[in-house]
Structure formats: structure tokens, C-alpha cells
């Protein structure tokens, strides 16, 4: 299965800008389906970015983050060609991890 | 049962000794308790994410209140046509930023996102949030151990949380 995580990490001088898009329903638990029944909450709780084994950004999310979440941040100290490891875990215990090259 | 009288002192001694070690054990617990406290910050703030009240969520997350700061730039649309996807970003010139939190007081769960910013990471975050209806968006920035906030109202024409 293809990874749920898409990342564009671009090093520009000493700063690396990271844009991330994840495929995930991010169901809040407050929306009803066609039969009028609530769709159970299903959302990413923790999203972690690591560079050289060091966390550079940690997102704790609740139910109000949009479907197929997008997040952008920037950090210092990485070079072109370095690895950026991205992993998430959701409220059902499902998870995904992928490693990307910084461009 | 006949040995009860004879064994009583021994039992009492045992009980006392037992009580002593219980006291020691609980002392140990008290002595060693302070160490895990800072690590609690790293855990997913389960209770804060379940809060229905903005102030209470901030209190649970940080244990205190934030003061408004003009050094925080909160970018959000004046009007969001689709409450399911509201692009919101924040940047700040405050120094030593360790966390950034987004709170939407009119949402069913008021805390939307909580970002940990390690040293070397810029205090700028962009993300997309759901908004049930027109509401203020509050961003909390923890800088040098102090809390600062910025607020902006976003008018929502179609909610993203209701149904």
C-alpha cells in the first residue's frame, strides 16, 4: 500500500521548510452518515518529525484538524540529502511511518 | 487458636516492621515522584483535547492563563466559505518558543492542535482546521515559560463539524 504520508522538505540555507499532507479521514465523531448515525471519531493524535533521531516537530491533534491534514513548519540544522522520518498514530492505534530525503 | 497468645508479640512486631517498610516505601514514592513531572509535558494531553470550554482547555494544558501579545501574527480568513477546511497559520517574533496551541472556543472540542517546538525549530506553523460555526480562533504561544495569545474572528458560512 502506498504511504499515507506525502512530504516536501526543502533546505534553503540553514533552514529547512517542511510541508506535509497525510491521507486520513480525521472523523470528528460529530458528523452523521446517510442513515443518521454518528460516524465514530477517527483522527490522528500524534505526528512526529525526526531528523538524525532528534524530534524537530511534534503535532498533537484533536478532532478539529481537517480531513487529509496539512501542516507546514521549518527547522534549522539539516542539509540537502538528509533523512526526515515522519510518523503518525491515530486514536484507533493505526499508524504509518515514512522517511523522506531533504531536497 | 491456642498459639494466639504466645504468638501475639511476634505478630505485633511483624506488623510494626511491616508498617515501617510501608512508611519507607511511601517515602520513597514521595522522594522519587518529582522526576516524572516534567516528562508529562511530552505526553498527548488527552484531557485538554476533550474540553468544551476554551479557558479550561488552556488551564489544563498549561496551568495558567495567557496574555495578549502583538508579537504574534495570526493569519486566518475573515470569512471561511467552508468550515471543514480553514487555513490558519501563525508566526511570532517571540523568543524561546516551546509550544503553540490552536483553540476554537465554538467547536465541540475546543482544543484543535498543540505543537511542540524543539530548539532549532522556527515558531511558525501553518495548518488547516475545522470550524463548526463562526468563532474566534485563539492561538497560544509559550515563550520562555510565559503564555501569550492572539485572537481573530473567522466567520463561517458552512460549518465543518456539525452535520
Could you name the key traits of this structure?
heterodimer, A: 103 residues, mainly beta, Immunoglobulin-like, elongated, B: Immunoglobulin-like, 2 domains, 26% helix, 33% strand, globular
Question: How is this structure best described in words?
Answer:
The complex is a heterodimer of chains A (103) and B (163). By secondary structure, chain A is an all-beta fold. Chain A has one domain: Immunoglobulins (Immunoglobulin-like, Sandwich). In chain A, 0% of the residues lie in helices and 52% in strands. Chain A has no helices and seven strands. In chain A, the strands form two sheets. Chain A has a four-stranded antiparallel β-sheet, with no helix packed on it. A three-stranded antiparallel β-sheet of chain A has the order 1-2-5, with no helix packed on it. The relative contact order of chain A is 0.30. Chain B is an alpha+beta fold. Chain B folds into two domains: 33 residues; 113 residues, Immunoglobulin-like (Sandwich). Chain B is built from three helices and nine strands; from the N terminus they run αααβββββββββ. In chain B, strands 1, 3, 5, 6, 8 and 9 form a six-stranded mixed β-sheet that branches. Chains A and B meet through strand 4 and strand 5 of A and strand 6 and strand 7 of B.
Amino acid at each position: 500500500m502506498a504511504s499515507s504520508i506525502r512530504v516536501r522538505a526543502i533546505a534553503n540555507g540553514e533552514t529547512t521548510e517542511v510541508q506535509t499532507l497525510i491521507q486520513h479521514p480525521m472523523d470528528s465523531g460529530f458528523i452523521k452518515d446517510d442513515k443518521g448515525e454518528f460516524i465514530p471519531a477517527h483522527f490522528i493524535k500524534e505526528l512526529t518529525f525526526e531528523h538524525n533521531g532528534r524530534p524537530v516537530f511534534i503535532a498533537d491533534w484533536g478532532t478539529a484538524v481537517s480531513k487529509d491534514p496539512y501542516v507546514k513548519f521549518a527547522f534549522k540544522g539539516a542539509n540537502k540529502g538528509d533523512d526526515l522520518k515522519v510518523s503518525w498514530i491515530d486514536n484507533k492505534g493505526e499508524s504509518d511511518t515514512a522517511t523522506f530525503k531533504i531536497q | 487458636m491456642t498459639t494466639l497468645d504466645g504468638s501475639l508479640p511476634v505478630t505485633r512486631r511483624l506488623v510494626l516492621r511491616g508498617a515501617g517498610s510501608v512508611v519507607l516505601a511511601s517515602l520513597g514514592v514521595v522522594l522519587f515522584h518529582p522526576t516524572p513531572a516534567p516528562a508529562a509535558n511530552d505526553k498527548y494531553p488527552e484531557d485538554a483535547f476533550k474540553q468544551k470550554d476554551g479557558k479550561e482547555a488552556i488551564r489544563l494544558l498549561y496551568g495558567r492563563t495567557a496574555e495578549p501579545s502583538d508579537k504574534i501574527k495570526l493569519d486566518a480568513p475573515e470569512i471561511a466559505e467552508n468550515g471543514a477546511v480553514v487555513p490558519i497559520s501563525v508566526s511570532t517574533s517571540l523568543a524561546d518558543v516551546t509550544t503553540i496551541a490552536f483553540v476554537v472556543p465554538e467547536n465541540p472540542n475546543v482544543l484543535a492542535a498543540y505543537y511542540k517546538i524543539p530548539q532549532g525549530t522556527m515558531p511558525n506553523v501553518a495548518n488547516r482546521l475545522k470550524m463548526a460555526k463562526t468563532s474566534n480562533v485563539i492561538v497560544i504561544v509559550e515563550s520562555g515559560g510565559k503564555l501569550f495569545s492572539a485572537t481573530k474572528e473567522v466567520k463561517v458560512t458552512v460549518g465543518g463539524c456539525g452535520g
